[in-house]
């Protein structure tokens, strides 16, 4: 299976103007940038399947993009360390019906077990919670466990993207 990759790096933390804007103005800026990047990629050729992968702030940007554009309702989404404690993110994600894989750690400050449990009930949604992992999907001072987690996360994403994992097989990765 081949894929084209569009990498969009959000370096808003390096933009002084961005930090001085209000919440809605920042959202509009992110959405404008995301739409421009996506449109540039889609002009290259038509795609039968689209998968978005976002990490941290990138999950918020994807939620904004997908909720803003109904034509992206079919896109698959991998949410790495999503901002589950952010009320606006939560509201956007609850409205989506996209096939989704959420991967987070129980030690991530943005993890919210109650909200993750609500998402788990949505059709087409898989949740992987890694016991003890932080926002970087690592376990502090445990290199071997962190490397093991990387392999487990990679396998989960491969299964989701290929469509080979079942909803029943997704769940929680726990420390052995």
Summarize the structure.
The chain is α/β, with parallel strands linked by helices and about 180 residues long. Helix content is about 45%, strand content about 15%. The chain has helices at about 15-20, 25-45, 55-70, 85-95, 115-120, 145-160, and strands at about 50-55, 75-80, 100-105, 125-130, 170-175.
List keywords for this structure.
176 residues, alpha/beta, Rossmann fold, five-stranded parallel sheet, 6 helices, globular, disordered C terminus
- Based on DSSP secondary structure assignment, what is the total number of beta strands? 5
CATH fold-level name? Rossmann fold
CATH class: Alpha Beta
Share of residues in helices: 40-55%
Q: Order of strands side by side in the largest beta sheet?
A: 1-2-3-4-5
**What is the H level of CATH, i.e. the homologous superfamily?**
Alpha/Beta hydrolase fold, catalytic domain
Distance between the termini: 32 Å
Assigned CATH architecture: 3-Layer(aba) Sandwich
The number of helical runs is: 6
Would you mind describing this structure in some detail?
It is a single chain. This protein is an alpha/beta fold. It has a single domain, classed as Alpha/Beta hydrolase fold, catalytic domain (Rossmann fold, 3-Layer(aba) Sandwich). It is built from six helices and five strands; from the N terminus they run ααβαβαβαβαβ. Strands 1-2-3-4-5 form a five-stranded parallel beta sheet, sandwiched between helices. α5 (113-120) links the parallel β3 and β4 (125-130). α2 crosses α3 (57-68). The longest helix has 22 residues, at 23-44. 26% of the residues are buried. Residues 166-176 have low confidence and may be disordered.
